[in-house]
Write a structure and sequence with these properties.
Rossmann fold; NadR/Ttd14 AAA domain-containing protein; alpha/beta; globular; 5-stranded parallel beta sheet; disordered N terminus; P-loop_NTPase; about 15% strand; NadR/Ttd14_AAA_dom; single chain
Length: about 210
C-alpha cells in the first residue's frame, strides 16, 4: 500500500484538444515546480512507430488508454509525490466517443478498475486536478502555430479545427460525468492567445494556490 505523508501528493493532468498548449504547460509546471512529467502517450510511442500519430483517432485511443493507466500506476507504485500528466485516462475515451462510438470501451469495467485502484492505494481519486484547456480560437494563431505541427494531420481548416475542438470538449465532459473517482476537480482554463497568462494560471493550479 502506498501512503503519502502529510498529504503532499499532487497529481495534475492537462487535457484538451490538439494545439491547446498542453505540452508547453506540462513542461512549464515541471520547470517551475519540479513535477515529474508523464508525457503524452502517443508522442511517447512516436520514436518506436513514426506512423502512430497518423492512425485513425479511434484506433489510437485504444492503443493509448492502457498507456495512461500504466503511467499512473508507475507514479503511484514508485511513490512519486508530484506529477503532471500530458493528458489523462479520459482523453482516449473522449476520442473514442468522438470518432469510434461503436468501439467505446466499457465504462462499467473502467469504473471497477478505478474503484479497485483507488482502494488499493488508499486514495479517493486518480488525479487531484484535471485541467481542461479550452482550444484556441484565433484563426491566425491556429494557422501559424497549431497547423505547423506536421505530426498531426487531423485538421485541414480552421472551421473544422474549431468544430472538432468543441465536440471533443463536450465528449470529454460527458465521459467525466459517467465516472467517479477520477479527479477531485475539473478546471477550465482558456488557452493562449485568448489567455496570455495561461502558464501562470497552470502553475498556480499545480501548486494548489489558485483558490
Amino acid at each position: 500500500m502506498t501512503n503519502y505523508p502529510n498529504s503532499t501528493r499532487r497529481f495534475i493532468a492537462l487535457s484538451g484538444w490538439e494545439g491547446a498548449g498542453k505540452s508547453q504547460g506540462v513542461n512549464h509546471i515541471s520547470k517551475k515546480l519540479g513535477f515529474f512529467i508523464l508525457p503524452e502517450i502517443a508522442r511517447l510511442m512516436f520514436p518506436i512507430n513514426d506512423s502512430i500519430l497518423r492512425k485513425p483517432l479511434g484506433e489510437l485511443s485504444e492503443l493509448t488508454f492502457s498507456g495512461y493507466v500504466t503511467g499512473h500506476h508507475v507514479c503511484v507504485a514508485n511513490r512519486i509525490e508530484k506529477a503532471v500528466f500530458d493528458r489523462c485516462i479520459i482523453d482516449p475515451l473522449a476520442y473514442q466517443a468522438l470518432y469510434a462510438p461503436n468501439k467505446q470501451l466499457c465504462f462499467d469495467g473502467i469504473q471497477r478498475y478505478i474503484d479497485r485502484f483507488n482502494e488499493t492505494y488508499s486514495q479517493s481519486h486518480l488525479y487531484d486536478d484535471i485541467v481542461l484547456l479550452r482550444h484556441p480560437k484565433d484563426a491566425s494563431f491556429i494557422k501559424s502555430v497549431v497547423f505547423a505541427d506536421e505530426d498531426r494531420q487531423y485538421s485541414h481548416s480552421v472551421e473544422q479545427y474549431l468544430a472538432d475542438a468543441r465536440r471533443f470538449e463536450t465528449c470529454f465532459m460527458d465521459c467525466m460525468d459517467k465516472l467517479t473517482g477520477v479527479a477531485k476537480r475539473v478546471i477550465y482554463v482558456n488557452a493562449f492567445p485568448e489567455n496570455p497568462d495561461v502558464l501562470r494560471d497552470l502553475t498556480l493550479i499545480a501548486a494548489g494556490l489558485d483558490h
